[in-house]
């Protein structure tokens, strides 16, 4: 009897131990990612971070790992492989290699470094997290039919003919690879269960743009490289075949739209380095939408007796309007000492891409219809060109001269979108308050808020599509119903393109609106900190000197405030 009782006790202890093992984090029921032993600190040398970052960039840009060149992640590279491999095995291998780089980063201790050096550490960490998010959550090569259209579209990106050196052979190789890539797409997308039908819809719409780009490429090649024109025909045939395949299988695509709140929050904290949650951002964007709509209506009433703005109506008027707006903005920046206008901050190259945006010559007919924004910028061009010239073009010119190994240049995975798009967006309204619309037709102030309101409704569409609350159709209808003159959006290329951008490039339009709010928070904090010593051009020069990085890091570097950064680990 005693022996039996002892045996039962032993068996009970063994069973209890086994259950405990199952429940332990490192047991088969636990999450090893949360309990993996932290590598021992191997280095406190900043030079090791620089070396690691260079290795990681090279890894990302090698072969199929160069996924950010083909997706809506916000970073386009030029070294495109004509025969990329996006198979499940190839992608799993690249994802597995990521952990080696993350462990190397975890073995570096930045605690004793200067704040700018610690900022660089966060940038490296965010980029690795961005790569992880692509592989762990988005996996566009197996969930997004538009992913392969993106690849095919980028294959046609070439310099203006005549092409030089290896460019001819490279283009021919890419064009000839299109049919094989379409076959790979069909194989890699053979499981329809995780694919959202809305992504199939967007892919079909995008294919139309790619087809037009290939047809335009053929026109450009006929004069200088007629031998390449024959390669475009099979590429277009393959593209049409891909569109038919998507259409015929769209009813089988049963996946959920968006990434979900939990993944959205992880992305905010670990990639975009934003110390807010989905709920926080929804409130921020809703309040900003309330503000800009209210101000728009107040401006309409204020300007009710002012003569209307007359939109441009020809290529010549369009060109003249842009030149006048750019001259006006540049003079204002210099006269009012908004920030240091360095000698290299010139609009020369900007004119090359903007002056003939509606045609290739001044003799081309003026289009009967235009994208939504042009209904505003054709009446007052200052804000649109402030966004594009002072915001993006000048950022590009600064980035070309920024040789810092980690800080310089553009960031992958939309890490800098809140800074880049947020600041460009902010300048439209904030320079208005600084006076750059004074003396012009007062209806221009309404245009400022009309353009801003289209950003906030797009941001709300972003937030609610990714939470799963809205479908693409519901987000589309919301924009039509709530944007100023939303009837102009119905059935427009512009609207579906913008929703494609924010659904497939997670958070794009949210980041634009939130980035503007974050910039204003930084300006308030810095002004309060310096008091009477606050000087606007010095403040903006500091902002620009920080580089194209998240606002939480810029704020930490400029003010020393750690309250936001401390939430990001």
Overview of this structure, please?
Helix content is 64%, strand content 0%. The chain is mostly helical and 569 residues long. The chain is globular, with a radius of gyration of 26 Å. The N and C termini lie far apart (58 Å).
Helices and strands in order:
Layout: H1 2-23, H2 32-35, H3 46-60, H4 88-106, H5 115-138, H6 140-143, H7 145-155, H8 167-188, H9 197-224, H10 226-249, H11 261-270, H12 278-302, H13 315-335, H14 348-354, H15 374-377, H16 382-400, H17 417-434, H18 443-466, H19 472-482, H20 493-504, H21 508-530, H22 536-546, H23 551-559
Shape: globular
Number of strands: 0
Measured as a percent range, the helix fraction is: 55-70%
SS content category? mainly alpha
- Helix/strand order, N-terminal first: HHHHHHHHHHHHHHHHHHHHHHH
Return residue spans where pLDDT drops below 50 for at least 5 consecutive residues. Answer: 1-35, 69-79
Largest sheet: none
Average pLDDT rating: 90
Oligomer: single chain
| Content of β-strand | under 5%
Distance between the termini: 58 Å
Number of helices, counting only DSSP H or I runs of 4 residues or more = 23
How big is the Rg? 26 Å
